[in-house]
Design goal:
Length: 484
């Protein structure tokens, strides 16, 4: 039974969502800040393709570690406290990347910033899902993706104007190269996030898990009123074992390593990356320069991708609680496979110039831009927001933190694999062959979703199945029902 609209404190819920999704903004901003700094990194640290890929990808290694440890630590210390740690890492990482002259320390700073991004990527949707009413949970959690893309677009815009002010990314502004300011700018939203987190409450489901029912009741009373708070505390309490606190081993199952619901989370987490989306977001200027355009035009195309992305996420926000998560994923898979296939074909028709870059005719160049933006639209209409929504809500209370740790680790490991291999694949195999791999990933994702992913639209978190507490003998009891 859903609480009535009159008892739901939407002002407080909206404020909580606004604060939590600043983590999404930072996720996007820190991820996109590198886009436009490529020449500066290579020039300052004398990087070959391997070390350039590692320098860019070090953020993603940190993301994998941050997502894994944040999911676990959130079950021990709380969602809010771990987000505060992440906000601190955001600030420190941005400042060090902006000023340091020593490459290994720069990489460590990107790794630390990546840990913060990884933590925010799993904790923001987790936190929102645990305070939002079930009927609008999808829409509220989708705001996370709106903020991710807003952060990406903000990074593209800031980088573009810094490069314009300095002449290019290597030019000097205020005593520093423009590309250094591109990293320092990350500190501004990070400080806002750090301060804002001090004013929101802890997740009531974490509080119940720790036996702090009175505190949970107080938070839920503020959100839904006293009568609904009493019912929700009782419902949440029933989903936890009194003698078995959440732990990492809860996600495992003999014979298959992980429980089926955890495998489902890993599936959508990894295939969100195997379609190659972050090649557009992280290497956008490099991609378009390989396709024969100038740095200025490449940065303009990045901004265009960011703008259409935001529009697509708003479309998803309007539909996710109406038509459901699974249909959006399947629509996105089809649209991405077609548009990626078009990009593969277009790149195959180009010729290499004297510098080894791909040269496209004006018509083919326009076609590549259109296909790339259609691809970005379909991703951000579907897999971009829906994957994070589902990871925040699909797991039962008892294993949510640990399952998110595993799925988040898988997501960022796949992200790193794609980003690390792109420079070498693009230069060694060519853009056409590289994009053929991403096309196959999008096509395969359709059939995997159809077969293995079940709908979660409109369900209370306490209705999610896939866990039963171990018996006294330590054996797992099979779940009574599946998520459907």
């Amino acid at each position: 039974m859903e609480s009535s609209r009159n008892s739901v404190n939407m002002a407080l819920i909206s404020a909580i969502v606004a604060v939590a999704t600043i983590g999404g903004l930072l996720f996007g901003y820190d991820s996109g800040a590198v886009n436009g700094t490529e020449d500066g990194l290579k020039n300052a640290f004398q990087l070959n393709d391997f070390w350039f890929g590692l320098t860019v990808g070090s953020l993603l290694i940190g993301c994998a570690a941050g997502a894994f440890f944040a999911g676990r630590l959130a079950d021990v210390f709380g969602r809010r406290r771990v987000m505060l740690i992440a906000a601190t890492l955001f600030v420190v990482g941005a400042l060090v990347q902006g000023f340091i002259q020593i490459h290994p320390i720069f990489v460590l700073a990107r790794f630390a910033g990546g840990m913060a991004v990884g933590a925010a990527s799993v904790l923001s949707p987790l936190y929102i899902s645990e305070v939002a009413p079930a009927k609008i949970r999808g829409r509220l959690t989708t705001v996370q993706q709106v903020m991710i893309i807003t952060g990406l677009t903000a990074a593209f815009v800031v980088n573009y104007f810094l490069a314009q002010a300095a002449g290019n990314s290597l030019g000097i502004v205020g005593g520093l190269p423009a590309w250094r300011w591109m990293y320092l700018a990350q500190a501004v939203p990070a400080v806002v996030f750090l301060v804002s987190l001090l004013f929101i409450p802890e997740s009531p489901r974490f509080l119940v898990a720790k036996g702090r029912d009175e505190e949970a009741h107080a938070v839920l009373t503020r959100l839904f009123g006293p009568t609904e708070a009493t019912r929700k505390v009782a419902d949440i309490r029933r989903t936890f074992s009194d003698d078995h606190r959440p732990r990492l081993s809860d996600v495992t199952q003999k014979g298959t390593i992980f429980r089926p619901i955890v495998w489902a989370g890993i599936l959508i987490a990894t295939f969100q990356q195997f379609v190659g989306i972050n090649v557009i977001f992280y290497y956008g200027s490099t991609l378009w320069k390989l396709a024969g355009v100038s740095e200025e035009v490449a940065l303009e195309r990045n901004i265009l991708s960011g703008v259409v992305s935001i529009a697509a996420v708003f479309a998803a926000l309007l539909l996710i609680d109406r038509i459901g998560r699974k249909p959006l994923l399947m629509i996105g898979s089809v649209g991405m496979a077609i548009s990626l296939g078009a990009m593969t074909y277009i790149f195959s028709q180009g010729a290499l110039d004297a510098s080894g870059n791909l040269s496209l005719s004006p018509d083919l160049g326009l076609g590549a831009v259109v296909a790339a933006n259609i691809y970005v639209i379909f991703f951000n209409f579907s897999w971009g927001p829906v994957m994070w929504v589902m990871l925040g809500e699909m797991f039962p209370n008892q294993i949510r933190g640990s399952a998110l740790a595993v799925a988040g680790l898988a997501q960022w490991a796949a992200n790193y694999l794609v980003v690390q291999t792109f420079p070498a694949m693009a230069s060694g195999l060519g853009l056409s062959t590289t994009y053929a791999f991403y096309t196959v990933g999008a096509a395969v994702s359709f059939f995997l979703v159809k077969r293995f992913i079940n709908e979660t639209k409109g369900k209370e978190l306490e209705e999610m199945e896939g866990w039963d507490a171990p018996s006294a003998a330590g054996d797992a009891i099979a779940p009574k029902t599946r998520i459907d």
